[in-house]
Amino acid sequence: MTTERSFSVMARRWIPASAQLLFDAWTQPAELMQWWGPTGVKCTDARIDLRVGGTYLIDNLMPDGRLVRIVGDFEVVEPPRRLSYSWRVEPGEETPERVTVRFEPCDGGTEVVVIHERIASTSTRDRHEQGWQGCLEGLSRYVIAN
Question: Cα–Cα distance between 74 and 87 in angstroms, integer?
């Protein structure tokens, strides 16, 4: 039997860059806006108060013109190795999901591992999986080009 919010997804990608460089790209608004989102999605605003208890906001302009806002609170901030934060799409979701991002030095680069938990349905899980794969592809392109 499946309980409410029991789904999760893991996405990972090895990127030829240091953990510090990738952590900074993930946590500095001006950088995040350059690579965030799957293909066709544009990040139009990012605000990050990078401390335990601090908040973040990411605005996503979808291909169909809708604006989707993601907000949450930082639960773990361990530069440059790990972040954990709540994830809520506004408006709508009252119970937040959780995202953990690990930056693991490996073979001359870093493996970025994203674990997204407390997902309510398989369809949402599948969208998140596609979204995280797109984000990791965009992050990789961004750091290689810069």
Answer: 9
Say if residue 15's pLDDT is above 90: yes
What is each CA distance from 142 to 51, 65, 127, 136, in whole angstroms? 24, 24, 22, 10
- Helices 19-27 and 122-145, axial angle in degrees (round to 10): 120
Say whether pTM exceeds 0.90.
yes
- Residue indicated by tokens 């639960």: 75
Which pLDDT belongs to residue 3?
45
Residue-by-residue DSSP string for 29-47: HHHHHHH-SSTT-EEEEEE
Q: Where are the alpha helices (DSSP H) in the chain?
A: 19-27, 29-35, 122-145
pLDDT at 37 over 80: yes
Three-state DSSP state, 6: coil
